[in-house]
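Wait, can you check?
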Amino acid sequence: EKTDDDIPMPPYFRFMALLAFKIFSAEQVDVALLEVGLGGKFDATNVVKTPVVCGISSLGFDHMEILGNTLGEIAGEKAGIFKKGVPAYTAPQPEEAMIALRQRASELGISLQVADPLKPHQLKDQHLGLQGEHQYVNAGLAVALASTWLEKQGYVDRMPLNCTDPLPDQFIRGLSSASLQGRAQIVRDSQVNSEEKGQDSSLVFYLDGAHSPESMEICARWFSLATKDDRKVPSSMEQSLTCSKSRKILLFNCMSVRDPMRLLPHLVNTATQNGVHFDLALFVPNQSQYNKLGSKASAPAEPEQIDLSWQLSLQAVWEKLLHDDDKGSNSANSGENSQVFESLPLAIEWLRKNALEDPSTSYQVLVTGSLHLIGDVLRLIRK
């Protein structure tokens, strides 16, 4: 309300960090976990001078236009959160990244410890709430950070005894109940799937906000495993009788700052290696729009106002990937392999129409490429 030309609104990430600090202070939280918005060294969250502990999760090639073109450069920016006298942990990293992280830790005179991935037996027959094998790496880092905080607070009796023994019950409850929308999330479409109609799960959305080469591979492995599991273990006898075959469809968009030639090949190749081939790819614009805070701009109302040139570029990359595929497992005719929709609601409507008209087929739709797209899909299918 008090902003003007002399005191403008802060950039989005800085505003969100400031808002978070205000809320934490107002609510008098006991402990806060701050996730860096972008990079590390120059991120708004890095104003905290003496955190209890610092952690770095798995690094990959993302935001390269800002952070650098090599993993070493990116790791150097990430290591900017390290503080003198503050313990630091990292998930296992490629050697190039580890060299940069160790160098910064050495400059500050702190020890950098690698957090071991969690072992399944440490959960005492429970399962992680977040799906995907990579979550055991994230869980290992989370346990290391939480244990450090407990130690600093004097709660030594609540800490894990070592990195191989089963975790305390409080840790297991937290890890098994954790949830994060849009990451390895499976949603059965309620408008199509109805037990009253004798149908079950003939349209299922598999949502993952992957938007880097590394996360694309992880996403493809998860989707491959999840759809195989769905085929092996029908949720009801009706499903095994009703859905005798499946169609795997990709619903994709990514921001224009991303390079689809660095994303789609990783997705397709990893899926193929795991025995999964997409029958069709749908390319759509995001429904939500990114505007500056305080902007009066609105989303285009008429279809003819929507620029689909980016979606057509994505489709061209997809078609080239299929054309270059020596296995020839996909049709070579453009239009059979992919479609561009002028809006996300139209794509969802098309999927529902086809699923209802063909109840003998299970439509397994992987939605990925953008967290904005994931959020838009979740809003639409839950209406």
